[in-house]
Amino acid sequence: MDNKKVGTVAKATLVIAVITVLSKILGFAREAVIAQQFGANSVTDAFLVVFNIPYMFNGILSSALVVVVVPIFLEYMARGQVPEARKIFTTVFVVAVFIMGIIVLMGITYSEYVIRLFAPGFNESTLELASVLAILIFPTILFFTITNFLMGVLNASNIFAPPAMAPVILNIAVIGAVFTLGRNYGIYGAALGMLVGTAMGALFQIIFIKKTSFRFIGLISIRDESVKKVFRLMLPVLIGSGVGQLNVLIYYFFGSGLNEGSISALNYATKLILLPQGIFVMAVGTAIFPSLSRAVAFKEMGRFTGTLARGAKMVFLFTAPAVMGLMILRHPIVELLFKRGAFDERAVYLTTGALLLLSVGLIGQCLGPVITRGFYALQDTVTPVKVTVVTVAINLGLSVLLVKSGQHLGLALANSIASTVNALLLVAILGRRVKGIINKELLIFASKVVAASLIMGLAVSGMDAILVKTLTGSKILLALRVGIDIFIGLIVYLLTGFITRIDEFSYLLDITKVIANKGKVALRTGT
Prior knowledge:
By secondary structure, this protein is mainly α. The protein has helices spanning 3-38, 42-78, 82-109, 111-118, 124-137, 140-156, 161-179, 181-185, 187-209, 225-244, 246-255, 262-273, 275-297, 301-328, 330-338, 345-359, 362-377, 383-406, 408-433, 440-467, 475-499, 503-525. It has two domains: 3-438, no CATH class; 444-517, no CATH class. It is 85% helix and 0% strand. It is globular and about 65 Å long.
């Protein structure tokens, strides 16, 4: 990959990562505010179930749009068929908005039955609360749909910042609503904040779409062969993403019948476990996907292999130490972020237990989306569906076996095992199809990263054992303790990585230099 391409991908990754860090900080602030205001109980269980239903639709649709619309859009643009690209996008957009509008109306009308389907273990009062919240929150499905469509076009035009800002806007809106409307209207204020936040996020994308070469056209045709191709490619992705969302449903389905606060504990632990994925993994996946799609479009399979392998290695480089850090520092992290107000010691105990077992599957959860991008760039939307079906079946079977003895911890462990199996299957299948992805160099790299992470873990554990004796008694001291632990872990990990010559550290230095040089040129030229 030459300097220009490295700089483009690196710059896109950096932009997405920086904005995503901001989003995740605000996301944790949102969760902390909700935890402080309402705790981990039946009220938050009801809110979180309803809150995450639109996110499930968002996950299903966004996967289909990004992995289908972007490659097809770029394919037609590369051929110079701009009107055709616009017609395809406009048609799919209109159809999707129409279908989602019907789903929203049905969900609002029959909200109680929807909640019974997702969380059959809720008692009558919790069910009634969730049903009312659904009326306020379900319209966000439509706003998520609009945002996702426009995100596909913006990413295809190498515009990454506005789509990444949508979660930032949403989190700010929810936090503001909890502090204002929440004081008088309780959890309903948070629901209104979500509605306003998603609407503002969609409007933000519309503003920036004018900066691209794309324009909506008035003529649509669902019978056009190109449009049919898009729907044929989207269908397996929609099915696969839908099946994948069953992993979340398993939480709600079984968790609604467990002790009060179980769903909330799983939710808070999941937010922590997905922090590495949200900050860097999704940034890498989003940044490399247009490059993968272009490599396939121009039949440059060597570039495809190199880009995907590099992306997977970068993900592993950041995820492996994150696993060790979350497992070792789970209690001080949960206490620092969430323990205040209604979030008591019991809630901390429930959440740290779930966090420990969810950490086991973090590497699989992070590698899966990146490897799947490789299949989608090859316009193979069927294989990931098959793999997802297998792993969801594993998750469901293990959940049935483990939930009785392990309660919510059993659900967390089942999810981790399924995530790991999912990543291993995807890597094995793609490795057979595309030569060069799995090789000796990759295995040596992985062993070095694991060794560096273990050494880092020992250092962090030893340091925390010393700090816990002195830095206790206040949030400031607890924050200082966690900060020192993380700093020591980072230094040890970097030193071990350079000593063992992990090549990705050199790559990071190279792309940093490329970005720095581009910044100097921009300052000199005023561009």
